[in-house]
């Protein structure tokens, strides 16, 4: 590979790793929210299964990317699901802890799988949009795309999975230490659902919103500004559990 081509691919790879890190933070937050109610041992298992599924779905999405470009319904279902679980939690007048524990381990894993599918599609579509204009190489085709592009996307996906693995644990610890943060976390989940909805509405098959707007600076600035406001607001308004409360749990 020529030096100029190598530099071009390297620069896009750096941007992609940063992008996948940001997208994976959303995935990690949802994973932490869904696993939080489980006992500690099952919680770790659920997060590890969620990480494995995220990897499988992302790799699978790369191989069927040409098909996914035409199936906007996957993102739509993911968006609706995230918005639904956020609203269901926020509109409850009483947050019944016993009711939360009724949710089985199997049901939690199933919900994590559904969320992972939606995030995998969103992540890979964003990655392909970033590398699609790179020049083709002599590496041949893998999964219906240039081999070098495929490798770049795989590296980006792995970087994103590393973020999910560590961020999910951090989010679980934060939610355990500051239970009142859960409302803010649910707002963030709902807002991530809105982001997926915007991508769905910008899909070429739907085209209600301009794709350039969704991928542009204005919308991304709005999205991350609202994320920051919710996160900071939740942090400053939440109360930390005392040691006595944690021990008596």
Automatic annotation (TrEMBL):
Does this UniProt record's set of keywords contain Ubl conjugation?
no
UniProt topology in membrane: Multi-pass membrane protein
Q: Where in the cell is it found?
A: Membrane
Which residue ranges traverse the bilayer?
12-34, 46-68, 74-91, 112-130, 150-172, 184-202, 217-237
Q: Name one Pfam family in it.
A: TerC
Task: List the InterPro entries.
Answer: CHP03716_TM_YkoY (IPR022493), Integral_membrane_TerC (IPR005496)
* Source organism superkingdom: Bacteria
Alphabetic keyword roster: Membrane, Transmembrane, Transmembrane helix
Q: What is its main location?
A: membrane
Q: Does the keyword Membrane apply?
A: yes
The family classification in the record reads: Belongs to the TerC family.
Instruction: List the PANTHER family.
Output: MEMBRANE BOUND PREDICTED REDOX MODULATOR, SLL1022 PROTEIN
Q: What is this protein called?
A: TerC family protein
What is the organism field in this record? Metabacillus bambusae
């Amino acid at each position: 590979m020529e030096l100029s081509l190598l530099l071009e691919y390297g620069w896009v790879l750096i941007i992609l790793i940063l992008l996948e890190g940001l997208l994976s933070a959303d995935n990690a937050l949802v994973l932490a929210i869904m696993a939080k109610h489980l006992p500690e041992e099952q919680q770790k298992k659920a997060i590890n299964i969620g990480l494995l599924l995220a990897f499988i779905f992302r790799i699978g999405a790369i191989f069927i990317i040409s098909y996914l470009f035409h199936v906007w319904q996957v993102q739509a279902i993911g968006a609706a699901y995230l918005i639904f679980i956020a609203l269901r939690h926020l509109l409850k007048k009483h947050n019944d802890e016993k009711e939360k524990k009724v949710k089985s381990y199997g049901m939690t894993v199933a919900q994590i799988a559904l969320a992972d599918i939606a995030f995998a599609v969103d992540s890979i579509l964003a990655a392909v949009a970033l590398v699609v204009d790179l020049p083709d190489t002599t590496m041949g085709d893998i999964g219906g795309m240039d081999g070098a592009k495929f490798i770049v996307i795989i590296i980006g996906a792995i970087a994103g999975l590393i973020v999910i693995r560590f961020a999910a644990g951090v989010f679980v610890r934060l939610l355990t230490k500051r239970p009142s943060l859960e409302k803010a976390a649910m707002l963030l989940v709902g807002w991530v659902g809105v982001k997926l909805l915007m991508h769905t509405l910008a899909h070429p098959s739907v085209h209600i919103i301009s794709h350039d707007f969704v991928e542009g600076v204005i919308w991304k600035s709005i999205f991350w500004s609202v994320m920051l406001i919710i996160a900071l607001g939740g942090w400053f308004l939440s109360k930390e559990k005392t040691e006595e409360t944690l021990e008596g749990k």
